Amino acid sequence: MTTTTTRDRHGRPLVAVTGIGIVTSLGWGVEANWAALTAGRSGIRRITRFPTDHLKTTIAGLVHLPDEAPGGECIPSPVRVERMAVAVIAEALQNARIGDTGRFPGPLFVGMPPVEMEWPQRFALARGANDGAPGYRGLVAAVEGRQDIYETVLFGGVAEHLAARFGTRGAPISLTTACATGASAIQLGVEAIQRGEAEAAIALGADGSVQPEALIRFSLLSALSMRNEEPEKAARPFDRTRDGFVMAEGAAALVLESLESARARGAPVLGLVLGCGERADSFHRTRSNPDGKAIIGAIRNALADAGLAPGDIDYVNAHGTGTPENDKMEHLGMRAVFGDRPPPISSNKSMIGHTLSAAGAVEAAFSLLTIRDQLLPPTINHREPDPAIPLDVVPNEARRARVRHVLSNSFGFGGQNVCLVLGEPPG
């Protein structure tokens, strides 16, 4: 994209990305992740953090914290989320060369998992119930007056802690929109800048939900792959033999900034967020409406917001979970929007697994790196093409390509769909 203007076709400020931070099962940091992803390496391994006896799925894309020992003390998901979030925000700020004094000139939008108390913490509360009161009354008694429960177990303090640490402005926003959460956080940041409410924002998606209860819940939905004997080959988006997604952890942060502000301070511009589109169908708690209208609508809304035609998209970063239904519905959306000649599409989840609340942010970050290096990451484990999904999925090996615009898809449970259009930096 070559432009001297700092406004889009709607008269809104163009939104630049000036910093990125990433952590996934492939490693810590942008360059480590990108090198592994484009080499087609998998971060999916056998679970060693907790016993997996009697679990149907015993593999995941785990992020091991620096001070964490396999089989050691169970770290609650909110603590895990906060530690990953601190790392990716710090990396993004360093790359953006902004907020070095602990005072960031804009708001914070944090995409996280839903409020949840995990089994180990529930049992600990039950054991510590006052006066041995049974059942629910005992749990209530144990929780009363426990600020630490709110802050470290119920996700309530994560955004506040991050805001205080990095000096963001205003009240931080915590949100969850299922698997679209990370993309929703980016959308909120973009819209705040477009409305003129902020010159910059931090948008974050993070998830550390790999624990027994979550695995059981997703297994009961028949959503998880059970290829435990070959973890690296389990995630097979768009393949005929796909049997479900692989749960994973990770985080990504983007520093969003008006292009005018970025240019004024001489900041590096990694790319532009040109369009955001969302559409919900409210059809089912887990399934998409078979007519695909919400998925199709989210893609079309993103393109319209960006002022682009379908033919302007050079590559699609797929939601691509590897479940039989999701991949089929994504193909339906692709065909409806792009017709008989859709652009190449590939799934990062074949390598990192499904990072759930983090996925939209992680995949937006990878989309920007795709533009930066003009290199399409592959969909690995693609051995048996599904004749019902005739797409160019960049099978097994990365590919050089001319990439000006990327569509990044995020389709969540409950019909919560968000699509982002990312563009190359202005020349």
From TrEMBL:
Pathway: Lipid metabolism; fatty acid biosynthesis. One of its GO terms (molecular function) is 3-oxoacyl-[acyl-carrier-protein] synthase activity. It is an enzyme of class 2 (transferase). Pfam families: ketoacyl-synt, Ketoacyl-synt_C. Its EC number is 2.3.1.179. It comes from the Bacteria. Keywords: Acyltransferase, Transferase. InterPro entries: Beta-ketoacyl_synthase, Ketoacyl_synth_C, Ketoacyl_synth_N, PKS_Beta-ketoAc_synthase_dom, Thiolase-like. Signal peptide: none annotated. Residues 12-424 form the Ketosynthase family 3 (KS3) domain. NCBIfam families: PRK06501.1. Belongs to the thiolase-like superfamily. Beta-ketoacyl-ACP synthases family. This is Beta-ketoacyl-ACP synthase.
